[in-house]
Design brief:
Layout: H1 8-25, H2 29-35, H3 41-48, H4 68-81, H5 88-102, H6 105-117, E1 122-125, E2 141-144, E3 148-158, E4 166-172, E5 181-187, E6 193-198, E7 210-220, E8 224-225, H7 231-267, E9 269-270, E10 273-274, H8 279-307, H9 313-338, H10 348-356, H11 366-376, H12 381-384
Parallel strand pairs: 1-4
Antiparallel strand pairs: 2-3, 3-7, 4-5, 5-8, 6-7, 9-10
Helix pairs in contact: 1-4, 4-5, 4-7, 5-6, 5-7, 7-8, 7-9, 7-10, 8-9, 9-10, 9-11
C-alpha cells in the first residue's frame, strides 16, 4: 500500500540510503554475523554520507533536519537492505537524543560532532542482572566525592557493548530514594570500566551485546547528564521515542518477511502447483498483508505525532505492541510456509525468525506495553480503589 506520509524529497533520500545499505552494509553482513560485531568503519561511512543523527544541529556537523521521517527511512532501509544487527537506530535515535536533550553546551561540543561523524559510537546501560524493567530495583550506584562521582556496579544485555566509546549509565545517587537515579557518561578507557565477553544470543548475531562492569570508576562531574537524581524522569521522557523506533524496526522486518515469503510461495511447488495457490497459504498471506498495512499506517501516524511532539507514552506503547506482535506472526508464518527450508539458516527467513523474537521483550515487553495502555484507560488499581 502506498504510504502517503512521504514526499518526493523523502523518496530521493530513501533511494540514497538504500544504495548505501546495498553497497556498504549488505555485502559485509555475513562476516559481521560470524564475527559477532560490525566494523567500526561502517559508522564512519554512514557519518560521511550524512546518515547519522540527521536531526542534529548544523553547529555540530549535523544536517539539522527537524523531520523524524528521515530517521525512519534510515532505520527501515537498514533492515530491508542492510543488516539488522547494525544498530544505527540505537546510536542515532535512542542514545544521542539523551546527549542532545540533556547536555550542557560544553557536553554538546565535546560529544555530538564525533557521534555525527561516526568516530564516537554510543550505548546506553540501564538493565542489570537483577533489574530489567524494574528500574527502581537498580543497584549500580554513583557516590558524590566532591570533584567526581565514584561509580560501582554492573550492567547486562548492553547493545553496542563492545564498540561503544560513550556509554550513558543509569546509577543510583541517593540510596534513600528508590527513584533517585542519575545519568552519567562513561568514556572508553576510564580506569575501572571493563566489558565482559560478547554475549551469545538467539539472534541478532552481528549486534555486539555485552556485560559491563564499573569498579571505582572516577566519573568527572562534567560527565553528569542533566541534574542528579532526575534520571528516572529523564528516562520516561525519552521512552516514547525509543518505543516508536522499535515499532519502525518491527514493521520493516515484517514487510521484509512478507516479501520473502510471498516470493517463495509463488515459486515453491507441491502436488503439482505453487504452494501459494493453496487456499490456506493464500488466506494466511492475505491476512498478514492486511495486518501489516494496518499496523504500518498506525506507526506512520505515530511518526507524524512525534514530529509534532504529540506522541503520548500510551500511544507509543500501542505502536510498539502492535508492530512487534504483527512482526512475530509474520516471521512465524514465513517459516511455516517455507516448510523445512524455513528451519535452515541458509534461508534468510530462518534468521529473521530468531532476530525478531527479542522485539516483544526489549524496550518494554508486550506485557508492560499492555499495562501502560491499560493504565492510560484509567484501569489503575491504585486509582480505582
Amino acid at each position: 500500500m502506498e504510504r502517503l506520509i512521504f514526499d518526493a524529497e523523502h523518496d530521493l533520500f530513501r533511494e540514497n540510503v538504500r544504495k548505501f545499505m546495498q553497497r556498504e552494509v549488505a555485502p559485509k553482513a555475513a562476516r559481521w554475523r560470524e564475527a559477532g560485531i560490525v566494523d567500526r568503519e561502517i559508522y564512519r561511512k554512514a557519518g560521511d554520507n550524512g546518515f547519522l543523527l540527521t536531526w542534529a544541529d548544523e553547529a555540530y556537523g549535523g544536517a539539522g533536519i527537524e523531520d523524524f521521517r528521515y530517521e525512519q527511512i534510515v532505520y527501515e532501509e537498514n533492515i530491508l537492505h542492510g543488516e539488522i544487527g547494525f544498530y544505527i537506530n540505537l546510536h542515532s535515535g535512542l542514545v544521542a537524543p539523551y546527549i542532545a536533550g540533556l547536555g550542557d553546551p560544553d557536553q554538546l561540543q565535546r560529544w555530538l560532532p564525533g557521534c555525527i561523524s561516526g568516530d564516537t559510537i554510543l550505548a546506553v546501560a540501564m538493565t542489570e542482572p537483577g533489574a530489567g524493567s524494574d528500574l527502581a530495583g537498580m543497584k549500580t550506584r554513583a557516590e558524590d566525592k566532591g570533584d567526581h562521582w565514584l561509580l560501582n556496579g554492573s550492567k547486562t544485555y548492553i547493545s553496542n557493548g563492545q564498540l561503544a566509546d560513550l556509554v550513558i549509565v543509569a546509577a543510583r545517587t541517593d540510596p534513600e530514594k528508590s527513584h533517585a537515579l542519575s545519568l552519567v557518561v562513561v568514556e572508553r578507557g576510564m580506569e575501572g570500566f571493563e566489558r565482559g565477553q560478547r554475549l551469545k544470543k538467539m539472534g541478532l548475531e552481528a549486534q555486539d551485546t555485552s556485560e559491563m562492569f564499573f569498579r571505582d570508576v572516577k566519573v568527572p562531574k562534567s560527565n553528569m547528564l542533566g541534574e542528579p537524581g532526575k534520571g528516572f524522569h529523564y528516562l520516561g521522557r525519552f521512552l516514547a521515542g525509543e518505543r516508536l523506533i522499535a515499532g519502525i524496526g518491527s514493521m520493516a522486518n515484517a514487510q521484509k518477511a512478507f516479501d520473502l515469503t510471498l516470493a517463495y510461495a509463488k515459486e515453491r511447488r507441491a502436488f503439482g502447483r505453487p504452494i501459494g495457490a493453496f487456499q490456506n497459504a493464500r488466506f494466511r498471506l492475505a491476512e498478514m498483508r492486511t495486518e501489516i498495512d494496518v499496523a504500518q499506517c498506525f506507526v506512520d501516524q505515530c511518526v507524524l505525532l512525534y514530529n509534532d511532539k504529540k506522541l503520548s507514552p500510551e500511544t507509543a506503547a500501542q505502536a510498539k505492541l502492535v508492530s512487534s506482535e504483527v512482526e512475530g506472526r509474520m516471521v512465524d508464518l514465513g517459516v511455516q510456509l517455507h516448510g523445512g527450508a524455513g528451519y535452515m539458516q541458509e534461508y534468510e527467513i530462518s534468521r529473521m525468525y530468531t532476530d525478531a523474537r527479542v522485539t516483544r521483550i526489549f524496550a518494554g515487553s508486550s506485557e508492560i506495553m499492555k499495562e501502560i495502555i491499560g493504565r492510560g484507560l484509567g484501569l489503575d488499581e491504585r486509582k480505582m480503589n
